[in-house]
Amino acid sequence: MSLPPIDCIYVTEECVREWKSGNQNFRVSSPVPMLRFLYELCWTMVRGEFPFQKCKAALDSVEFSDRVSSQELASSFADIVTQMAQDLTMPGEYRARLIKLAKWLVESTLVPLRLFQERCEEEFLFEAEMIKIKAQDLKGKEVRVNTRLLYQQTKFNLLREESEGYAKLVTLLCRGYEDTTENTSAATIGILKSLIGHFDLDPNRVFDIVLECFELQPDNSTFLELIPIFPKSHASQILGFKFQYYQRIDVNGPVPSGLYKLTALLVKEEFIDLDSIYAHLLPRDDEAFEHYNAVSSKRLDEANKIGKINLAATGKDLMDDDKQGDVTIDLFAALDMETEAVVERSSELESSQTLGLLTGFLLVDDWFHAHILFDRLSPLNPVAHVQICNGLFRLIEKSISAAYDNIRQTHLQNFGSSLGASIDYMGTSSSVGHRTFIDLPKELFQMLATIGPYLYRDTILLQKVCRVLRGYYLSALELVGGSDGAANGESVFTGNPRLHLREARLRVEEALGTCLLPSLQLMPANPAVGQEIWEVMNLLPYEVRYRLYGEWEKDDERNPMVLAARQTAKLDTRRILKRLAKENLKQLGRMVAKLAHANPMTVLRTIVHQIEAYRDMIMPVVDAFKYLTQLEYDILEYVVIERLAQGGRDKLKDDGLNLSDWLQSLASFWGHLFNSAKAG
Question: Is 255 within a domain?
Answer without folding.
Answer: yes
